[in-house]
Amino acid sequence: MIAGLYDDLCKRAAEGRPIRVALIGAGTFGGMAIRQCLRVPGIELVAVADLDVIRAATVLRDAGVNQQRLAFNLPTLSDSILVTTDAEAAIASEHIDIVIEATGSPIAAIRHIRLAFAAAKHVVNVTVEADALVGSALAVEAHSLGLTYSLAYGDQPALICELVDWARVNGFDVISAGKGTLHKPGFEWTSPDTVWTRYGMDATQADGAGYDRRMFTSFVDGTKSAIEMAVVASATGLVVPKAGLGFLPVGIGELPSTLRPRHAGGQLERSGIVEVISAIEADGEAVTNDLRWGVFVVVGTDDNEVARCFRDYGLTTDTTGKFAALWRNNHLVGMELMTSVATVGLLGRPTGVPKSHCAEVVAVAKRDLPEQMEIDGEGGYTVFGKLMPAENARSEGAVPIGLARGLRTVRHVSQDDLLTWEDVNESGPDDIRSLRESMFNNVSVSA
Q1: What gap in Å lies between CA 301 and CA 2, rounded to an integer?
Q2: Pseudo-torsion of CA 35, 39, 42, 44, nearest 10°?
Q3: 404: closest CA among 431, 439, 445, 373?
Q4: CATH code of 12's domain
Q5: Which of 196, 254, 276, 301 is most buried by a 10 A CB count?
Q6: Host domain of residue 227
Q7: Domain count, the chain
Q8: Interacting residues of 94 by C-beta distance below 8 A, sequence separation 6+
Q9: What end-to-end distance do the CA atoms of the chain give, in Å?
Q10: For the domain that residue 371 is a member of, what is the CATH number?
């Protein structure tokens, strides 16, 4: 995070020139962002768009916004906040500088992001599913228009990108980088019916709290981790494991010894790779000093003096002293999003941005799928997402998890088989196919 942002925001507030934002999607992440946005000088929430305006209004009121400030489906006036179901209208408002896309729906998010570009608005994209599908194409489009497209700080991908950037700027070799989660073999078959048991939560309490079974299924079955690591790989140039994520059960003390290449005594196929570690062992026992909510980077050096400094300054290292780990134990999701807003709005710089499409998250059958079975997509009963190198996924004709929902099989697909375009009845929306072709062909994208 860049020092001095808060002072610059205070200056903008004193000058009456706040960074004005529109939020698309008032769910869990959006609700967190709203609460913090209202507390930061120099940032002004101008509009909130959500398919459920009652939900959006409730979130705003619970965050302390006076009901009289809410303008429903009307243009923003004075200090009112527009609350609308019409995302396009919110995006098009002349009062907006930055659009925050937080719907969680990749198809809708891509549409909203491109509408924002057409309206000359910067974008902070919370919907990582959209970035995993066409992020580098969106980044090219933004750049061609003189706009900024950014990952969302507070979500783990942007925090991992920050750690990787820190390491590289300071001359360290990035050996591996990633995040923690809760996963073990067999969890990939998790469905909305079994998710609460595997997540370790009482079903009555979870449902009573309004937690989304599909979203949590995506967490547990590994899909969300795969999506986030695809985003990190495309933003940093780190490679992805050829066989998919390992979900190694590793505590923070073992990071530098385990998350190093096999030729150096670790468990990774090579250096410069993304990986996800698990907070539970294969038998279900808890990992000691786990990093379930956090992010990490493992760095390396071939300089003996640097290795000595690793030890002398208290870094956790392997036995050679030449591999060291740094980590952050947690991430605060939408509560940290204003870092992205400030960085984009003040400096015109992203808090993470994809540079190439080097990773794909492909759909794999959770069960035997008979002919004419409708695929329910991420967090459902039929498929989970697996991380693959993009060139491998393309050569095998794999269906990205972000485009799988609503497709119907045209032949039997066995459990654990890759879902291919030959297995289904459609090939995805035309505009998204065009964006994806532009990424693979390395050409510019027209608005």
Answers
A1: 26
A2: 40
A3: 373
A4: 3.40.50.720
A5: 276
A6: 157-183+222-330
A7: 3
A8: none
A9: 31
A10: 3.90.1210.10
